[in-house]
Amino acid sequence: MSKIERKRIDLQPTLARVQTAVRNGEDLRRHWITVADVVGQEMMMRSFGLSPADIQTQASLEQTLLADQALLESMRGRVGMSHPSMIAQQEKVRLAREYLQRNQERAAESISRLQNEQLGPLLVEMVRQQLREAVEQEQSLRVQFQAAQADASRRTGQIARLTMLQREVKRLYDLSDALVSQIASLDLRQDGHDVRAKVTAPPVANHRPVSPRLAFVALVAIVSGLGIGFAAVYVLDVLDDRFRDIDDMQQQLGVPVLSLIRRLDVPETSGLEAIQLHVAPASTESEAFRTLRTALALADRELNRIVVTSAEPGDGKTTIIANLATCYAQSNKKTLLIDADLRRPGLTNLMQMRQQEGLSTVLRSNAHVADLCVALIQPTGIERLDVLPSGPRPANPAELLAGPRFLELIDWASTVYDQILIDSPPTLATSDSAVIGRLVDGTILVVQPEKNHRRAVIRAVEGLLSLRIPLLGLVVNHAKGEERGGYYGYGYGYGYEYNGGYGNDEDDYADDVESEVTTATPRDAHFHDTDPDEGGRPGRIVPRRAA
Fold first, then answer.
1. E strand segments, 76-180
2. CATH value at residue 328
3. How far apart are the two ends of the chain, measured CA to CA in Å?
4. Of the candidates 88, 106, 135, which is a domain's last residue?
5. Is beta strand 335-339 parallel, antiparallel or unpaired with respect to 385-388?
6. What digits encode the pLDDT tens for the residues 58-110?
7. What angle do CA 344, 350, 351 make, to 5 degrees?
8. Could you tell me which residues are beta bridge partners of residue 189?
9. What CA–CA distance (Å, rounded) separates 288 from 263?
10. How far apart are alpha carbons 518 and 263 in whole angstroms?
11. Are 134 and 11 in contact (CB under 8 A)?
């Protein structure tokens, strides 16, 4: 720590003490010594009207007075009081005392006047002035120190570079000396004779051209052509992010296609008139849903609790599940439809049950689940088919579905109904389908090839399988009615840009009420292949093809 910094540190508390004393009206004379120590004796004397010469004269006179008094005491034992030298010495001592007494009185008067008039502000101003000077000196020294530090760093770098250059110069000198030594030691004579050169073979012309080299050019052309071809295939694959056909879809996804649904020609978009199997049960389009029901019935175990979901919003899962439920009801099975899409309840809107209590009421209530379900489940107008609407939209649908009351509801419904179908939100939009999928016997994924991106469907399937959710298979919606390779193919008529928003508009439920069905031929029936590595869980559903 430098002297200037110590001085500044000493001045700050001194200034605080003097200011406090002035505010409190204390006697400031006891602060003289403290202020004098930090601001200096010379400045204090000048402030009180005393010059350094006066102080020095007073101190010298006090020393002389002490010496004269000692001499006077020693003379009293040798001479009488009336002796001239004794009288002169006494007069000298008296005059010195009177002079010192006058100086003290003058100093006391000056100090008393300052105490009464301006001693406080004077002391404060002296300390402040010294503090300002100390701060300015400290800042100046800091700037000088930083400049000196930067200069020292620069000089250190220059010294290091100079040292490296000196080493390089020394290395070059050593190399030069070594080369000179080698040159000096060369002997251009061998066995006492001069070294001579001669032609060992005549020059031969090369009749093969150096350029172009046909073999090399052909190899480069083949490699470049293959590279460009692979690049073109990759670019086309990236730009056209769609499945080519059913085989391509099954190969890339590793999941079977249960049924092909083409466009449905129904007169309405809501109500029972929007259900194909109810409007025209004997039509060709309705047969596709019976094919789907048959594929599920041929599983190696009973599938009484099934959830239907899709990769993205608007794929037609609500229409698929409504027609599938109607198909089960027509086969004399008591069926329950549950609208578990609490964010955008398409099934509730399809059945025209908006503004009614439903699933969210059961999940948020503390009442008995069975009593609430009996009161809230509504008949659809189709024999043996009931529906539990979604109810008021909650703020936390995922947490409600993950709670114990939803599992209790499914267990109760399993004791009352033969078949339970659950409509859940899209897989890529929310995590609700993953929560529900762990509680049921299997999951069906609705895919619309004209609309879905291939990577989106792959991501949806991989997400379900990674969570060990039993994925029964795919239902291809909006399939075209062309016969290709023994099964119905599908084409693409428009592009699609997926908007990730979901559940923001309750009135957009019509996007999910689809209307296209294609029936599968008898050779498209499916069966389950149990994977022994999964501990008895249903494996992939493999298509059974005709020989």
1. none
2. 3.40.50.300
3. 98
4. 135
5. parallel
6. 667 778 888 878 887 888 777 777 778 888 888 888 888 887 777 766 665 66
7. 115
8. 194
9. 11
10. 7
11. yes
d(Cα 469, Cα 487) in Å, to the nearest integer?
28
Identify which has the larger pLDDT, 500 or 468: 468
Domain end (from 117, 135, 153): 135
Give Cα 428 to chain centroid, integer Å: 21
For residue 534, give the amino acid letter.
Answer: E
pLDDT at 53: 64
- Is residue 465 included in any domain, yes or no? yes
User: Rounded CA gap, 394 and 392, in Å?
Assistant: 6
Structure tokens that stand for 58 in this block: 């007073």
DSSP 211: S
Give which of 458, 480, 440 is closest to 296, Cα–Cα.
440
Q: Which two tokens stand for residue 178?
A: 């070594």
Domain hosting residue 44, numbered range: 3-135
**pLDDT tens digits for 156-193?**
999 999 999 999 999 999 999 998 888 777 665 555 56
d(CA 363, CA 386): 19
Structure tokens that stand for 408 in this block: 């209790």
Domain-located, residue 411: yes
Q: 305-310 and 257-261 as β-strands: parallel, antiparallel, unpaired?
A: unpaired
Query: How many domains does the chain contain in total?
Result: 2
